[in-house]
Amino acid sequence: MAETVRFEGFTQLAKTLKQMPEWVAQKELNLTVRAAAAVMQREARRLAPKDSGLLTKSILIRKVKAIRGPYDRYVGRYILGVRSRLVSQRRRRKMTTEQRAELRRREPYYWHFVEFGTSRAAPVPYLRGAFEATKVEAVGKMRERLKKALAREAQRSLRRRAMRDMKGAR
After folding, report:
1. Could you tell me which residues come within 8 angstroms of residue 114 by beta carbon, excluding any fewer than 6 positions away?
2. Does the reported pTM lie above 0.85?
3. Residue 125, SS3?
4. Bridge-based pairing state of the strands 59-64 and 77-82
């Protein structure tokens, strides 16, 4: 089951974003969401078992297509997960036994056994644990980064306006 965080009270932010150039709003919001995901990624890597180190290295942030909603033109969706299935099933079938064995050494196919447990092993929830442990910190990071970005863009627009006024006064 996917965990989500719901943000409310973003009407003022939406108005501010509509006043900004679209490319700036899109870039800043994507960087903000990615920064929050990076906080969770660090915690997930810390919580993950370190037997071979492969699982820890394979925890990544991946951007997928934008979701439908009021802010979908600005923010893409980022997923924090484990890189697995490096090769499609069709290509796997064409591989030799040695190639498949090499692929198994490079990908942590067992990540969900660790996360959710099995009948013989207790779960070690490193992804869910990272989300629960850092969700407040991640939202704070988003808020902080977005404030800086909005202040920076406000300064830029003031400079642009001043330059236009100077050109018009000539």
Report:
1. 48, 49, 55, 121, 123, 124, 126
2. no
3. coil
4. antiparallel
Q: Give the domain ranges of the chain.
A: 21-158
Question: Over the stretch 20-34, which tens digit does the pLDDT of each residue have?
Answer: 777 777 788 888 888
**Around Cβ 114, how many Cβ atoms within 10 Å?**
21
Put residue 80 in one of left, alpha, beta given phi > 0 → left and psi -120 to 50 → alpha.
beta
| Other residues' Cβ atoms within 10 Å of the Cβ of residue 146 | 19
Spell out the residues 6+ positions from residue 20 whose beta carbon is closer than 8 angstroms to its own: 153
Q: Which residues contact 41 (CB under 8 A, 6 or more apart)?
A: 59, 60, 61, 80, 130
Reduced to 3 DSSP states, what percent helix, strand and coil does the chain have, rounded to the nearest 5? 60, 5, 30
pLDDT tens for each residue of 66-78: 666 655 555 667 7
